[in-house]
Design a protein that fits this description.
One of its GO terms (biological process) is cysteine biosynthetic process via cystathionine. Belongs to the trans-sulfuration enzymes family. This protein is of the alpha/beta class. It is about 35% helix and about 15% strand. The protein has helices spanning about 15-20, 60-75, 90-100, 115-125, 165-175, 225-240, 245-255, 255-275, 295-300, 315-325, 365-380, and strands spanning about 1-5, 80-85, 105-110, 130-135, 150-155, 180, 200-205, 220, 280-285, 310, 330, 340-345, 355-360. It is globular.
């Protein structure tokens, strides 16, 4: 979907944009947000012209959602194109496998999402050289020479390291490399990768973007139509399309994104501050803490610091007891939902974390209740 950003008037804030993004022009007696269009085919007499021909290619419900996401990722920018996918991994795969060929070099973070090692194996099997480096300290710069594509994940999941997107994007551009940023944890209300110099902003909409833990979704946004054409072709070839109901639910959920992001980010900071004084807690990370190693860079490129806090308890057993003792926080994977969740991340494998490492996702509960629950669970889980 190619679209200029909607004009909501000068000085439009995040809340105004979130509740109005992607809405069609008002039509008397029609809904402000039309319901999902369930169609495999459309009336198509004569030559196949017009936007909607077959359900694998385009759908009116996707169109509105893609327009909305583009308006959030690059407000006020013309020519922004967004493509929706049925999951974040579908979106990630679409960029990687549409842009890279045998003999190319790609740079990935070695501390990113736990499925990236599987992606690395597949890329290598296709004859693509994969280099990795940590997110922190802009370490990917050291292995960038000769690369076709730099993949950035900032803040990283689950360790919450942050890299300087502007610096990395400028270095990549000087070397002729493309830059894709996984913006899942930050959301467009936390940072806008395209404004920081990235070619692609990619995310899982399953997380905070939609925020209710009830749909899987992904998307890719870029300004350059020539870069998006192969991504669109990849989506068509593999059939990685979202269902219209999921797309409609996602668009509906965007209206509360600013409200949720503000509350959840504030709750995450409150939880992080409460954990600072606990002797059993080590490795506490939250980019919004002024003494966090990532704070300086994060505060320069992020407008909100996200809902995820990470920390480590002394042992696996202590972490499991802590999770069992929580009453308001669900032991569940993923993050970004209005209901707080936490998990011992090491149970999955694939992440270089200690056995007692906890990834905590702050929801929209009252902060006093959350803090009380977390501190009580720490006390009850003590040896």
């Amino acid at each position: 979907m190619t679209s200029g950003s909607a004009d909501f008037g000068a000085g439009s804030g995040d809340g105004t944009r979130a509740v109005r993004a992607g809405l069609p022009e008002p039509v008397k007696n029609e809904p402000t947000l039309p319901g999902p269009v369930f169609a495999a085919h459309f009336h198509l007499p004569g030559d196949p012209t017009g936007p909607y021909t077959y359900g694998r290619d385009e759908n009116p419900t996707w169109t509105l959602l893609e327009r909305a996401i583009g308006e959030l990722e690059a407000p006020g920018q013309d020519g922004v194109e967004t493509l929706a996918f049925p999951s974040g991994m579908a979106a990630i795969s679409a960029v990687l496998f549409s842009q890279l060929r045998a003999g190319d070099i790609v740079v990935l973070p070695d501390d990113g999402y736990q499925v990236l090692p599987l992606v690395r194996e597949q890329l290598t099997a296709y004859g693509i050289e994969v280099r990795t480096a940590p997110t922190g300290g802009d370490a990917q710069l050291e292995v960038l020479d000769g690369a076709k594509l730099l993949w950035i994940e900032t803040p990283s999941n689950p360790g919450l390291d942050v890299c300087d997107v502007r610096r990395l994007a400028e270095a990549a551009r000087a070397r002729g490399a493309l830059v894709a940023v996984d913006n899942t944890l930050a959301t467009p209300l936390g940072q806008r990768p395209l404004e920081l110099g990235a070619d692609f902003s990619v995310a899982s909409g399953t997380k905070m973007l939609t925020g209710h833990g009830d749909i899987l979704l992904g998307y890719v946004t870029a300004r350059d139509a020539s870069l998006m054409a192969p991504v669109r072709r990849w989506r068509k070839i593999v059939g990685a399309i979202p269902g219209p109901m999921e797309a409609w639910l996602a668009h509906r959920s965007l209206a509360t994104l600013q409200l949720r992001a503000d509350r959840q980010s504030a709750n995450a900071l409150t939880i992080a501050e409460a954990l600072r004084g606990r002797p059993e807690v080590t490795g506490l990370r939250y980019p919004g803490l002024p003494d966090d190693p990532s704070y300086k860079i994060a505060s320069q490129q992020m407008r909100r610091f996200g809902c995820v806090v990470s920390f480590t308890l002394p042992t696996r057993a202590r972490a499991d007891r802590f999770l069992d003792a929580l009453l308001l926080v669900d032991d569940a994977t993923s993050f970004g939902g209005v209901r707080s969740t936490a998990e011992r991340r090491g149970r999955w494998g694939g992440d270089a974390v200690a056995e007692g490492f906890i990834r905590f996702s702050a929801g929209a509960e009252d902060p006093e209740d959350l803090v009380a629950d977390v501190l009580r669970a720490l006390d009850e889980s003590a040896d």
